[in-house]
Amino acid sequence: MAIAKTESTIQTSTTINTSGSVTSSALDCSSGVGCTITANLTFNASATAGATLGILSSPDDTNYDTLVLDQVSIPVSAGATVQVTLPVNPSVKYLKAKVSNLDAAYTITAVTIVAVLTTA
Predict the structure, then answer these.
(1) Helix extents (H) in the chain
(2) Looking at the domain that runs over 4-119, which CATH code has it been given?
(3) pLDDT in tens, 41-55
């Protein structure tokens, strides 16, 4: 049995408004045995608050959780581009990633989210 890893960009170069969020397109995890979600983003040079990367799940790709399944905090690094990866248990059928901007004064730019699904 061969193991394969498939990379999918599920959100491309988006700006998140102050105190806003962006939710990615869906990833079908039906055949997955492993999964990681990586967010890459750029904080404003004057930013004072960080962000979060959260995972929403769904059994049918229509009805998604109202609370995140898992989440990681992304500490502010003013003016810097940062990247964070969250391993996800692929026992869910579908998932979406959500990046939230915790800064009420400055946007976050160039938000890209990449999923890597491992199948066997």
Answers:
(1) none
(2) 2.60.120.260
(3) 999 999 999 999 999
